[in-house]
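Structure ticket #2291
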Amino acid sequence: MKKPVIDRQQNAPRQVYEILRSRIQSAEIAPGTSINERYLTELLGISRTPIREAVKRLAQDGLITIIPNVGTTVALVNTQRIIECCVIRRSLECAAIETAAKNFDTATDLKLSQLIDEQDNTITTGDMVRNIAVDTEFHYTIVGLSGFNTIESILKTTMGEILRVRHLSIKLPGRLRQPIIEHKAILNALRSGDPIKCSAAMRDHLDKSYSSIVDVIDNILIK
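Resolution: structure written out below.
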């Protein structure tokens, strides 16, 4: 693991949480990997207390498994949990975009357009890690526009499992440019200002994304 920098002027447990969460979601720290507190204290240059707080929070997110008297590991991917997360995600994002449509403005239009262009460029360069990051930012931007902070918070927790699957399947052939076409349809719906059209475009996109995730489950997670 590349050594991250901890800002001692900021909340240490939160920083450790974000560092570990990011690396678990990107599969840089693979499912089943043991969480070694001593190694992390030496790597981050901090005491075990903030590490334990961060690990406890990650366990609540379902990304870490703590078994008393046995050990702490990165949670294995649970297929049923993935399916549930996809269902939750669709409900949240379809609800959020209906309100986001009412708040849509020129600045958001420009940002979403730029993200679509960048995502398209990542396919040309083959940078699929960045592709996933840009794709995720596209969705978070729309949810953020809705102003529903609780939905945004729940969604970020829900996305943890989905993002792990996407990164684990990064070398599999799959949908590449199709999500971009769907993102353009979502953006056009937002431009129309019609909440129902926006919700339909988002639902269509996430239903197709769900089908791709099921394929990943069948090809990678179920042996």
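Closing remark: Residues 79-221 form a domain with the Four Helix Bundle (Hemerythrin (Met), subunit A) fold (CATH 1.20.120.530).
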